[in-house]
Predict the structure.
Amino acid sequence: MYCKSCREPVPLDSKFCLHCGAQITSQGGTGPLKQPGGTGPLKKVNGEINEKPIEWQYRDYMLPFNQKVSYGRAWSAYDVSLHFWQNNQKLILSELNKLKEEGWEIISEVGPAGFKIEESNNYFSNNFTIVEFRIKLRQQRSCE
């Protein structure tokens, strides 16, 4: 299936385009672009229309932390993830830049939402374990 707005390929069950963010509607023309004469779908590769099908390779990038911290009762898991993002974003962004240089594209949100945090509460404080930072990546490959 292709986005009507930017004409990039999107998964069949998508509600929004991964490339431009446009809403994908099942009504009216999100189908493949056809070549003149109806010989098959066209694909865009680096902004150019190409007849070769595109494959995506997906992977998760994970940076383990496994760090236990304790904060006062007023702290939430969001506060902790924001605090850890502010303190570790230089390290994380440098790692992500290395992945971009290898041809990987980031397809999930980069920021505090990438932290996996486990929470346990007691009467006096909230105890958190910052387990990992994880985002989703994809890399484009042309089929031959």
